[in-house]
Write a structure and sequence with these properties.
Chain A: It is found in: Autolysosome membrane; Cytoplasmic vesicle, Autophagosome membrane; Golgi apparatus, cis-Golgi network membrane; Golgi apparatus, trans-Golgi network membrane. Chain A: Its cofactor is Mg(2+). Chain A: GO terms for molecular function: G protein activity; GTP binding; metal ion binding. Chain A: It comes from Geotrypetes seraphini (Gaboon caecilian). The complex is a heterodimer of chains A (203) and B (819). With 203 residues, chain A is an alpha/beta fold. Chain A has a single domain, classed as P-loop containing nucleotide triphosphate hydrolases (Rossmann fold). Chain A contains six helices and six strands; from the N terminus they run βαββαβααβαβα. Chain A has a six-stranded mixed sheet with strand order 2-3-1-4-5-6, sandwiched between helices. Chain A is globular. Mean pLDDT of chain A is 83; it is low at 182-203. Chain B is mostly helical and 819 residues long. The model of chain B is unreliable at 1-9, 210-226, 359-365, 412-417, 688-720 and 786-819 (pLDDT under 50). Among the domains of chain B are: 11-134; 137-166 and 178-209 and 229-244; 254-391; 485-688. The chains are: A alpha/beta (203), B mainly alpha (819). Chains A and B meet through β2 and α2 of A and α4, α6, α8, α10 and α14 of B.
Chain lengths: 203, 819
């Protein structure tokens, strides 16, 4: 008997410079709205969305972090338990792109080594103000072994795709792990604890 | 509604626990929990605890469904039922039930509805307050920590709801801490991954007080807890957390605090940082408080290249924290703390002088503000003081020694570094360290001077190397003053004046203890010498004389026995002679000041000894001075614009305190007049001989004293004897070998020497040796060819004299001759 309402549970953490649109991406995905005057996130924000992929219920626990430097210590503490990280930058802001190596260092330092990282260039609705070319970003993502996607939270471009692709990737990753860990490991959704990661033994 | 719906034919097929659970839900959620049925369920659960997990699972299933269908009334009812079941089942079986309970709480916390979040938190808090006796192997609170921390940062648009969510978050964290802190099997809450979330969340709320005032009381729940602000709640939670921290956990708990303060740049206004650490210090177990200080110090070290204001903030916090740390709780690393503080002090001086954080690369990336560095230095000094004051006496002595050992001594590397900048740096460091030392000594109440002031401390402090700079000299006097003064009398002597009746000062006097007597036996000569030489400094200004007066007065009060009083009187008379003879060409002001100083002190000591005859003599002289030479009295000298232009060279004998007169009156009252009759001669040290401060004039005056001291028949000998090589040779032979014709005189001398303290004898012999040396040097300089027959002792030394390599020569010679 399973009373869980999901088959998989994944923790996704959004990171990136302040003002690149992390909160808007999450809002767009979880609530379907684009809050125009979104203020700066304080510390961390939390959202849940359950999606269905090939008949399997996948619960996404999305932690949206503050980009501001002063909250760095608390946001870092959330990387560790993440299954996936969405590293966001603003295509109309060169600076946010240039900070990416710094963010990658943080990931290396604080996140799980098996974490899946996706690079997201947001705000493609501001195409005329674009400062970072798609090609450049793609090349960068390739060198860092990351998936790359361009989105617009405002126009809802690629937002669904971003999260769904990520969920699919996480599922296949989790399956591999389950197989690798032999049949002894608990089946998805029949985890022992309430917390996280009971389905995909990353740890 | 759902329960009622299944009540048909298939209802009987359902397991009993499901029926019981269904029955607690009313038809209309507005009606609330069905009390009677709830009792039945509770009774069933208690009588069949093995069914608890199924009850829990079923309840939670229903709850999930209700949440998904937005039937919040039923959600509340389910939670209420869960709470009641939890409370009722204090048994071991609770373990089975808790799992589904926590799942439900998590479910509620995942919801976006603030009310559900708060509901879930409240249930969790209730659960957290239940003490379980069986540990649980498979419970994870990670999600709760993450979620509650997130709630603490809530940025909900409605300020009232925001406050409620934040408070719920704080209480949730408190609950997690309570639940896990004592459970060894739990994922360790003290791990950095949890602490890094919990602590900054609490601090964030502690920091934001502004919303607290504007909040109107919540209409839903107005319990006591609900009324307080997130700030207060966060503070309470932080205190609870820290109060539970064991030795190994303190570090993990404090580190996030430091990082938070760094990130939010809260060291600068430092009010918050101080509040934080006050909370920490007061709530942490006292035996661990030194760890906090250690960590702060470490943080200071890590920040040694940060802006001065940041460092100053940290240091200020250390100072506050050290004040709170109970004295017994100082850890084994006291000196390490002081080492770091002193290191920072030196670094800051370097920054200030070079204007850069890195002496090698002079890129003006960071401009160093001198003013800020100064403030930082002051803060460090203050901290050293407050830290030292929280230490027990033996530690303080240790610290004093440690600081003293760090004071650079210029004579040791005089030739090595001569750069101007180096000199300035050295002087600044000396000043800073002495200032620190002064801070340490303030409030230092030692019982036993002997252990508190060991030779290894006094020697460097009183060394001549530190006497040349007027400011440093004043510091040393102040340090000595605050060390010697144990009854808070010193401020009563802060101005030099003639006191008509000392009873108005209301002095606190204890009898001089045995230890004090011992101390004076051992070190008095050193102190006298220091006072004497300090008096003779031409760079002295008003504060110096005040400090000297204070020194003399406090010694007389704190450490005086009969012998010391006699010695002090001798010393002061010698000081008067300094002004009278004026061998060192002191300025008129300096001389007047010395006259005034001796007058003020003799006035004081005469009243302290309560000898009418002594008082009378002193008063007579003072009265004469008032009439004829008021510029020799403190009231005239130690004012803003002293009138000192008078002629001080041809004074009449009536205005001078006379040794013979004083020894007469004191001898009449049982004081050792023999001793009083002999003039004071400062004890010389090796260092003195090395230092260039010893002028020829000094030597001659010493010689006179030596000669007169050695001969009982003073009149027979000319006071200023011609010094020839023959006399010198004679003198050497005197001190080295036995001469038949002088045997009789020697016996007398020995007799006399038996009465004098060892130091003084040594001083005499030393003085004589010095005299010989300097005269020899003089002679060697004048006569190019060496004299034909020097005695054996000199031969070795003499060859070197020509090369002017003085140290070896001078160090060897006195050793041989004096002892």
């Amino acid at each position: 008997m399973s009373m869980e309402d999901y088959d998989f549970l994944f923790k996704i953490v959004l990171i990136g410079n302040a003002g690149v649109g992390k909160t808007c991406l999450v809002r767009r995905f979880t609530q379907g709205l684009f809050p125009p005057g979104q203020g700066a996130t304080i510390g961390v924000d939390f959202m849940i969305k359950t999606v269905e992929i090939k008949g399997e219920k996948v619960k996404l626990q999305i932690w949206d972090t503050a980009g501001q430097e002063r909250f760095r210590s608390i946001t870092q503490s959330y990387y560790r338990s993440a299954n996936a990280l969405i590293l966001t930058y603003d295509i109309s802001c060169e600076e946010s792109f240039r900070c990416l190596p710094e963010w990658l260092r943080e990931i290396e330092q604080y996140a799980n080594s098996k974490v899946i990282t996706v690079l997201v260039g947001n705000k493609i609705d501001l195409a005329e103000k674009r400062e970072v070319s798609q090609q450049r970003a793609e090349e960068f993502a390739e060198t860092q072994n990351m998936y790359y996607l361009e989105t617009s939270a405002k126009e809802s471009d690629n937002v669904e795709k971003l999260f769904l692709d990520l969920a699919r990737r996480l599922i296949s990753e989790a399956r591999q792990n389950t197989l690798a860990n032999s049949a002894a490991s608990p089946l998805p959704g029949e985890g022992k604890s309430i917390g996280y990661l009971n389905c995909c033994n990353f740890n | 509604m759902p329960g009622a719906g299944i009540c048909g034919c298939c209802g009987a097929l359902r397991p009993r626990y499901k029926r019981l659970v269904d029955n607690i839900f009313p038809v209309d959620s507005e009606d609330g929990l069905v009390k009677a049925n709830m009792e039945k369920l509770t009774f069933y659960a208690l009588s069949a605890p093995e069914k608890l997990d199924r009850i829990g699972a079923y309840l939670s299933e229903r709850l999930s469904r209700d949440v998904a269908r937005h039937r919040y009334g039923y959600v509340c009812i389910a939670m209420e039922a869960l709470d009641q079941l939890l409370m009722a089942c204090h048994s071991q079986s609770i373990n089975l039930f808790v799992e589904s309970f926590l799942k439900m709480v998590a479910k509620l916390l995942e919801s976006e509805k603030p009310d559900l979040q708060i509901l879930g938190t409240n249930s969790f808090v209730k659960f957290a307050n239940i003490e379980e006796d069986t540990p649980s192997y498979h419970r994870s609170y990670d999600f709760f920590v993450s979620r509650f921390s997130e709630m603490c940062h809530s940025s909900h648009d409605d300020p009232e709801i925001r406050t409620r969510i934040r408070m719920a978050g704080i209480r949730g964290l408190q609950g997690v801490v309570r639940k896990t802190v004592n459970d060894e099997l739990q994922a360790n809450i003290w791990e950095p991954q949890h602490m890094d979330k919990i602590v900054p969340s609490l601090l964030y709320n502690l920091q934001h007080t502004e919303e607290a005032e504007s909040r109107s009381p919540s209409p839903l729940q107005t319990t006591e807890k609900e009324k307080e602000s997130p700030t207060e709640l966060a503070e309470r939670c932080l205190r609870e957390l820290l109060g539970r921290a064991a030795y190994g956990n303190v570090k993990n708990a404090i580190k996030p605090v430091l990082i938070h303060l760094d990130n939010h740049s809260l060291w600068e206004p430092k009010i918050f940082a101080i509040i934080c650490f006050k909370i920490i210090m007061y709530s942490i177990q006292p035996q661990h408080s030194h760890l906090v200080i250690q960590q702060l110090i470490g943080h200071l070290d890590a920040n040694s290249k940060s802006a001065a204001v940041v460092r100053a903030g940290i240091v200020e916090v250390v100072s506050e924290a050290a004040g709170i740390a109970a004295s017994g709780s100082i850890g084994p690393t006291v000196l390490e703390v002081f080492n770091t503080l002193l290191k920072q002090l030196q670094l800051s001086i370097d920054y200030e002088l070079t204007g850069s954080y890195d002496s090698k690369i002079n890129i003006g990336t960071k401009i160093i503000k001198e003013q800020e560095e100064r403030m930082f230095q002051e803060a460090v000094i203050k901290t050293i003081g407050s830290f030292a004051n929280s230490l027990p006496t033996y530690n303080k002595t240790e610290v004093m020694l440690f600081i003293m050992s760090k004071v650079p001594h210029p004579t040791l590397q005089h030739n090595l570094e001569t750069g101007r900048l180096r000199d300035i740096r050295k002087r600044l460091i000396q000043m800073m360290l002495l200032k620190s030392l002064l801070q340490v000594t303030i409030g230092f109440q030692c019982r036993n001077m002997l252990t508190a002031l060991p030779t290894s401390f006094l020697d460097p402090l009183l060394s001549a190397a530190l006497m040349e700079d007027a400011e440093i000299r004043l510091f040393i006097l102040e340090i000595l003053l605050s060390l010697i003064d144990r009854h808070g009398n010193r401020h009563k002597f802060s101005t030099i004046r003639l006191i008509d009746d000392i009873s108005v000062l209301n002095l606190k006097v204890d009898k001089c203890s045995r230890e004090d007597t011992l101390f004076m036996k051992k070190h008095s000569q050193q102190l006298y010498r220091h006072i004497y030489l300090s008096c003779n400094e031409p760079t002295n200004i008003h504060p110096h004389y005040e400090a000297l007066y204070g020194m003399l007065a406090t010694i007389s009060i704190e450490l005086a026995n009969e012998e010391v009083v006699v010695d002090l009187i001798r010393l002061v008379l010698a000081v008067q002679d300094l002004a009278l003879n004026n061998e060192d060409n002191l300025s008129v002001y300096n001389r007047c000041a010395l006259y005034a100083l001796s007058a003020a002190y003799l006035n004081l000591i005469s009243q302290l000894t309560t000898l009418p005859a002594f008082c009378q003599h002193i008063n007579e002289v003072i009265e004469v001075r008032q009439k004829k030479a008021s510029y020799l009295l403190p009231e005239e000298v130690f004012v803003e614009k002293p009138r000192v232009s008078k002629d001080v060279d041809n004074l009449e004998m009536e205005v001078v305190f006379l040794q013979s007169k004083i020894s007469e009156v004191l001898g009449g009252s049982g004081y050792n007049s023999d001793r009083l009759n002999t003039p004071y001669v400062p004890q010389l040290t090796d260092e003195d001989r090395l230092s260039k401060r010893k002028s020829i004039g000094d030597t001659i005056s010493l010689q006179i004293e030596v000669e007169s001291r050695n001969s009982p028949e003073r009149e027979e000998r000319a006071p200023a004897e011609e010094i020839t090589f023959e006399t010198l040779k004679k003198a050497i032979v005197d001190s080295v070998a036995v001469e038949e014709q002088e045997r009789e005189r020697r016996r007398q001398v020995v007799e006399k020497f038996q009465k004098a303290p060892f130091e003084e004898i040594a001083a005499h012999c030393g003085a004589r040796a010095t005299l010989l040396q300097s005269k020899l040097n003089q002679i060697f300089e004048i006569t190019i060819r060496p004299p034909p027959s020097p005695s054996g002792t000199i031969t070795a030394a003499y060859g070197q004299t020509q090369h002017h390599s003085i140290p070896v020569y001078e160090m060897k010679f006195p050793d041989l001759c004096v002892y």
